[in-house]
Every structure is written in structure tokens, then in C-alpha cells.
Amino acid sequence: GQSLEQPSEVTAVEGAIVQINCTYQTSGFYGLSWYQQHDGGAPTFLSYNGLDGLEETGRFSSFLSRSDSYGYLLLQELQMKDSASYFCAVRVPRGSTLGRLYFGRGTQLTVWP
Amino acid sequence: NAGVTQTPKFRILKIGQSMTLQCTQDMNHNYMYWYRQDPGMGLKLIYYSVGAGITDKGEVPNGYNVSRSTTEDFPLRLELAAPSQTSVYFCASKKENTEAFFGQGTRLTVV
User: pLDDT tens digits, residue range B79-96?
Assistant: First the structure.
């Protein structure tokens, strides 16, 4: 089976930096993605790592270490609107396709003023 | 572009009833997915499709069926609704190496 582990919740204050970790155990691996979901909304894409290292997109950065089956999402200069759930997701090959996309249980981030 | 459209947005079913959740996308994506999300939980993969005519089971396929007769449409069928199927259902689509785009979800309650 597939297993993605991330903390259930994280809290921080406005302007701070927070890191959300994700460890995974999957039968095959092609890349790690991060998605954001506000209450009552649909998940939206934030970042993707196909190779080891850091990817930066504005205030958000994501890191991957394939040898450690580990990645993280780093959120800087936190704003109240960043309060949401954050999910890591793994692409798992099946045959010749990258069909399967598995999600972790999500980390609820609460940003306080 | 409409993106990924799911209908209905809300539905209440009685135990044993059947229904089809509709999902259509206008981005010519080959991959499509159905997930369910229970309160405070992550997204569980029900079924997915890598192209028209090709479907495969995900993590929690029992009680559901899918079909993919066209690139655009990927309906999810519940044959005998059970209270355990009360959930929020999300459809998503993507191309081979791109992000996934999600619909706004269908909130289903089985009573």
C-alpha cells in the first residue's frame, strides 16, 4: 500500500516561517506535490518536486530528498489567508503511465495575528 | 475555460438508492480522478483513468463504479448507497506532467 505521513496541525503567527514535513512509503515514486485547501473549497496546486532539492515559488518553497523519502513545504512571511490545510501528494507509476496520485491526510495550518 | 465541473454540488440519498456524480473537464486532460474526503481527513483515491476507455481502481473502490467513454467525462456511479459513503467527492484532471485541477466537490449525505 501507500503511506504518506504529515503532521495533523501546525500553528504560527503572522510574519513567521513554518515548515510542514512529509514522509512517504509508496510502491514506486515519480514526484512529490503540495496542495492547499481552504475550508469548504477544492484543493489547489502549490508546488512540485520531481528531483532532489529546493523549488521556490514566491513565499512558498518545497524540498525533496528521494533517498530519505522525505519532503517539506516551507511557508515564509505567513499571512492570515495562509490558514488552510496543506496536503502532500505522490505520483506513483503504474505500467507505462503516471496514473496514480496519492494524498496524505493533510496538515491544518492556523495563522494567528 | 470552465476547468473541472462537478454536478450536483449537494445531494441527499436514502440507503439503497443509486446515483451518478458527474464530472467533466474542458482542458483535454488525459488523466482523471475521483477522490473522497471525509471530515478532517485527506483525499482517498477511488478510481482513476489514464484516457478514454481505460479505468483502474484506487485505494477505496468498493461500492463505486466508473466509466470513461470520452476524454471529457468521467462519471462516478454509486449503486447501493450506504451511510459509509457519506463524504465530499472531488473529481480532478491533469496532463502527464502537470498539476491536478480539482472540481468544487459534491457533498453527499446518505441517510
Answer: 999 999 999 999 999 987
Contact (CB, 8 A) for B100 and B92: yes
- Whether the per-residue pLDDT at A98 is higher than 70: the answer is no
What percent of chain B is predicted at pLDDT more than 70? 99
Inspect the interface and report whether the beta carbons of B105 and A42 lie closer than 8 Å: yes
- The rounded distance, in Å, linking the Cα atoms of A37 and A25 is 23
* Amino acid, res. A27: S
Chain B residues close to A35, C-beta within 8 Å: 100
**Residue stretches of chain B with pLDDT short of 70:** 1
Q: In chain A, what residues touch B48 (CB-CB under 8 Å)?
A: 99-101
Strand order in the sheet with A53-57: A3-5, A18-25, A70-75, A60-65, A53-57
CB-based contact (8 Å) between A29 and chain B? no
Angstrom distance (rounded) from CA B97 to CA A43: 18
Please report the number of interchain residue pairs, chain A to chain B, with beta-carbon separation below 8 angstroms.
57
